[in-house]
């Protein structure tokens, strides 16, 4: 099952980065250039040390006719939040190419409001955008050049630059970009004098599918299966204590795999400091804490005859069910983040979860049938005993 989940969660292969860069652009030539590590993008520039100005040209490609291409600087760190960006897209009024300035603040990253153009608070001396080969309109695969002249701080030649592209623009508000590994790794720090570059640490290609597969298998399936074992299998007298060992084994396996998936998620977050999924991260932490509390509860389990046993059982049931519900919800949340909303991976997980739910319904019905049968037998037994006692008392008189 883990192999199937890995197959379902594995994203499509990434497009290879541009192998060559050119100092010659549509408008002018530059002294230096660099191929960027993602999105077939490149950067050419000329640095003027006498006045600390930087002339540059970023080259990127559109991924849809209604999309956008952006390049920007971040004055503090190579991450999206805080970037002063120049974004090129098709003007909804005229249909021509337009280049507007934007400041990417935290509210934009959390999608609390649309991205609205506003003047940059950095010394941008000039900017323009042009389609390469003088194409009349934007199309998928069209190459755009973003030219800019920026005033840098004297004797500070290292810059944090970010680039990206998206599918849609609503009016004059670019929408969120895709979340593939290449899109999240489109940031770097370069020295415009020495041409040395520090690329942001990238996440291994196997990390995201492994993270999704482990968490779907552990929190999303094994832990609910362990709950089913504890609730229903224990009712079969022929099972004896086997149900307890099966329950503990399944839950322990699920928790260990879940911790491994959680650790991979932490590593992915550390490698992407500008990318934060607040809800997904919060649910993940809550599930891990709840699972740890369940594990610790086994160490303090009172005996069956202890007076605190009923309180321990209430705690164990409440935390266990809460952990299962949060885990399943977070699996679906993770699928949305990975763009698997309509994928075979989500379909396969839903089929597995539905099958488990169907087993629960069948066992619940069986449990009620057994309960009603035992209640009826007990009632008949009491009535029979009462009648026998009545006859004895009547004969004694």
TrEMBL record:
Its cofactor is heme b. Its main location: membrane. One of its GO terms (molecular function) is metal ion binding. Keywords: Electron transport, Iron, Membrane, Metal-binding, Signal, Transmembrane, Transmembrane helix, Transport. It is found in: Membrane. The chain crosses the membrane at residues 212-233, 245-267, 279-300, 312-332, 352-372. SMART domains: B561 (SM00665). Binds 2 heme b groups non-covalently. Residues 39-166 form the DOMON domain. The keyword Iron applies. Residues 1-17 form the signal peptide. GO terms for cellular component: membrane. Residues 173-372 form the Cytochrome b561 domain. Gene3D superfamilies: 1.20.120.1770. The keyword Methyltransferase does not apply. Pfam families: Cytochrom_B561, DUF568. This is Cytochrome b561 and DOMON domain-containing protein. It comes from Dioscorea zingiberensis.
């Amino acid at each position: 099952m883990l192999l199937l989940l890995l197959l379902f969660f594995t994203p499509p292969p990434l497009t290879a980065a541009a192998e060559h860069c050119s100092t010659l652009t549509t408008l002018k030539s530059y002294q230096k250039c660099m191929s960027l590590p993602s999105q077939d993008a490149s950067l050419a520039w000329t640095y003027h040390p006498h006045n600390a100005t930087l002339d540059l040209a970023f080259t990127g490609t559109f991924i849809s006719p209604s999309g956008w291409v952006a390049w920007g600087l971040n004055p503090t760190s190579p991450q999206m939040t805080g970037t002063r960006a120049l974004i090129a897209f098709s003007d909804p009024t005229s249909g021509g190419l337009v280049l507007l300035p934007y400041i990417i603040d935290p509210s934009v990253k959390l999608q609390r409001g649309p991205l609205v153009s506003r003047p940059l608070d950095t010394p941008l001396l000039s900017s323009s955008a042009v389609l390469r080969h003088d194409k009349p309109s934007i199309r998928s695969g069209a190459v755009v050049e973003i030219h800019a002249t920026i005033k840098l701080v004297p004797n500070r030649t290292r810059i944090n630059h970010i680039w990206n592209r998206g599918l849609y623009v609503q009016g004059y508000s670019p929408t969120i970009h895709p979340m593939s590994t290449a899109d999240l790794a489109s940031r770097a720090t370069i020295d415009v004098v020495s041409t040395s570059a520090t690329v942001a640490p990238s996440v291994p290609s196997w990390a995201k599918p492994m993270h999704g597969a482990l968490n779907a298998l552990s929190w999303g399936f094994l832990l609910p299966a362990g709950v089913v074992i504890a609730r229903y299998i224990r009712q079969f007298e022929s099972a004896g204590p086997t149900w307890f060992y099966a329950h503990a084994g399944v839950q322990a396996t699920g928790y260990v795999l879940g911790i491994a998936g959680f650790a991979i998620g932490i590593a992915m977050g550390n490698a992407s400091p500008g990318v934060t999924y607040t809800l997904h991260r919060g649910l993940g932490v809550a599930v891990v804490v709840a699972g740890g509390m369940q594990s610790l509860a086994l160490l303090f389990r009172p005996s069956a005859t202890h007076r605190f046993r009923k309180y321990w059982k209430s705690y164990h049931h409440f935390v266990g069910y809460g952990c299962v519900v949060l885990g399943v919800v977070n699996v679906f949340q993770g699928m949305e983040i990975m763009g698997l909303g309509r994928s075979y991976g989500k379909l396969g997980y839903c089929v597995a979860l539905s099958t488990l739910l169907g087993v629960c319904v069948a066992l619940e019905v069986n449990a009620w049938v057994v309960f009603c049968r035992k209640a009826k037998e007990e009632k008949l037994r009491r009535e029979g005993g009462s009648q026998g006692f009545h006859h004895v008392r009547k004969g004694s008189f």
